[in-house]
């Protein structure tokens, strides 16, 4: 058993660091671009007079960083080689994501917007695995070249984790001699809709509420008549690009069906494991950043004539966080490595509980580490002159999104108690209880 990182991966991280130092940091320092990362961050990034949306110049800066990373050969690392990538696996991506997040905030990796110079491509994975040949040809190229941007319409105002109870409906309807579908409903948290060319809309097409089957995904152009952004939902961490969107008498042709009719939930879950393990690694990296910055500050800060770090009240909470980070890193890398050893469909059947363990615990750990960093740094830690409050506000969302931690703990419990997963046939069924109460045992008193 060898826990050492492969030499090739270590070399890759070194090249990545050199690219950041030589190309991305100078771009961040140019033309007052630092305003997006200091205590004025939200005002610089957020257009409060335009529904709280990201400012176009902020999004343009991220796009320029991505362009440079793509030219340097880093951005598409996780993609298959047929799309210009390097077939980067889950282990490498987990290590890279932790490495970048542990550097703190910067143009090289800004998790608030899911921006990174090493990209994550769930949309392309979805198109590759579920798209028709025409959809693959048109939209994968468009996603890589910038003409195709996709938002995701699954959650609804009255339905979040209970997606099988969604109220949005699609019914067959022909118009002008073309077969198609009429969609009516409403979606929440359709992230990126302000720039999206299309929205993946999930709607029930058959079956009854609660059925996993019968939900179909549709690729709906965002400018289709009847698609309306009702409001942008302001969040704990701004800017916001998470609107509530209504779909009223929206018609699309049959060609808009994405994946198997009635099998839309499989599409929604297809990339969740890759997303969750990588996001867990990012939360771990951000937690490590908070821990290390707190240690550094405590060694430098003098209180009552000695280093702040001499106090056990400072030491012990950071010791516990560092211990958890060390254990979590091993679980994340082991799980990512195991994911790389099996076909993707097998992950759901054999490893889904471990992915959930990594994700919900990493997100919780990051919030605890950011909170402790604020406490160790005192007043300056609570201020926006330090990044900890920003890290807390951003990573707090992940305890709800990507599957709330309660949903993920329920998945772990289902595997643990044998309701699903590899232990399903290994855990014995409970013994039926007799309906006749047992007679009390009479014990004679000793003479």
Please explain how this structure is put together:
By secondary structure, this protein is of the alpha+beta class. It has three domains: 110 residues, no CATH class; 113 residues, Butyryl-CoA Dehydrogenase, subunit A, domain 2, CATH 2.40.110; 151 residues, Up-down Bundle (Butyryl-CoA Dehydrogenase, subunit A, domain 3). It is built from 14 helices and 14 strands. A hairpin with a 7-residue loop joins strand 6 and strand 7. Helix 8 packs antiparallel against helix 9 and helix 8 packs parallel to helix 11. The C terminus is likely disordered.
CATH class of the largest domain: Mainly Alpha
H/E series: HHEEHHEEHHEEEEEEEEHHEEHHHHHH
Return the average pLDDT rounded to an integer: 92
**CATH H-level homologous superfamily name of the largest domain:** Butyryl-CoA Dehydrogenase, subunit A, domain 3
Count helical runs: 14
| Low-confidence residue ranges | 441-447
What is the straight-line distance between the termini?
64 Å
CATH topology description of the largest domain = Butyryl-CoA Dehydrogenase, subunit A, domain 3
The profile of the biggest β sheet is: 4 strands, mixed
User: How helical, in percent, are the residues?
Assistant: 40-55%
Proper CATH architecture of the largest domain: Up-down Bundle
Number of domains: 3
Radius of gyration: 25 Å
Which shape, going by the Cα principal axes? globular
Strand order of the largest sheet: 5-8-9-12
Structural classification: alpha+beta
Assess the beta-strand content as a share of residues: 5-15%
Number of strands: 14
């Amino acid at each position: 058993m060898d826990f050492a990182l492969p030499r090739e991966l270590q070399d890759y991280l070194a090249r990545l660091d050199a690219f950041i130092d030589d190309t991305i940091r100078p771009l961040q320092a140019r033309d007052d671009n630092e305003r997006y990362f200091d205590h004025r961050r939200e005002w610089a990034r957020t257009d409060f007079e335009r529904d709280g949306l990201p400012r176009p110049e902020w999004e343009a800066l991220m796009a320029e960083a991505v362009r440079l990373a793509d030219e340097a050969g880093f951005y598409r690392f996780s993609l298959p080689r047929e799309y210009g990538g390097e077939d980067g696996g889950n282990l490498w991506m987990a290590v890279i994501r932790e490495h970048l997040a542990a550097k703190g905030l910067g143009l090289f990796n800004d998790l608030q917007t899911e921006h990174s110079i090493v990209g994550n491509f769930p949309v392309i994975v979805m198109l590759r695995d579920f798209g028709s040949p025409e959809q693959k040809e048109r939209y994968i190229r468009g996603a890589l070249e910038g003409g195709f941007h996709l938002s995701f319409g699954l959650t609804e105002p009255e339905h979040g984790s209970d997606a099988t109870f969604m109220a949005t409906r699609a019914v067959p309807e022909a118009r002008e001699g073309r077969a198609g579908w009429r969609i009516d409903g409403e979606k929440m948290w359709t992230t990126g809709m302000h720039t999206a060319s299309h929205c993946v809309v999930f709607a029930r097409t058959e079956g009854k509420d609660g059925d996993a089957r019968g939900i179909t995904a549709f690729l709906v152009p965002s400018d289709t008549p009847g698609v309306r952004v009702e409001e942008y939902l302001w969040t704990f961490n701004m800017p916001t690009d998470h609107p509530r969107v209504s779909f009223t008498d929206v018609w699309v042709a049959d060609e808009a069906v994405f994946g198997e009719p009635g099998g839309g939930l499989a599409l929604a879950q297809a990339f969740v494991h890759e997303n969750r393990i990588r996001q867990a690694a990012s939360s771990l990296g951000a937690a490590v950043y908070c821990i290390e910055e707190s240690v550094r500050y405590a060694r430098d800060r003098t209180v009552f004539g000695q280093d702040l770090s001499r106090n056990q009240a400072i030491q012990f909470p950071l010791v516990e966080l560092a211990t958890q980070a060390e254990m979590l890193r091993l679980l994340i890398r082991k799980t990512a490595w195991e994911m790389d050893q099996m076909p993707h469909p097998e992950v759901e059947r054999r490893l889904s509980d471990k992915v959930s363990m990594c994700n919900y615990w990493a997100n919780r750990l990051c919030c605890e580490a950011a909170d402790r960093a604020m406490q160790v740094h005192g007043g300056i830690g609570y201020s926006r002159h330090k990044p900890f409050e920003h890290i807390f506000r951003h990573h707090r969302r992940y305890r709800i999104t990507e599957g709330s931690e309660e949903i993920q703990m329920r998945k772990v419990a289902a595997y643990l108690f044998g309701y699903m997963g590899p232990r399903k046939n290994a855990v014995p069924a409970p013994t039926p209880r007799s309906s006749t109460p047992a007679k009390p045992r009479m014990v004679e008193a000793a003479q």
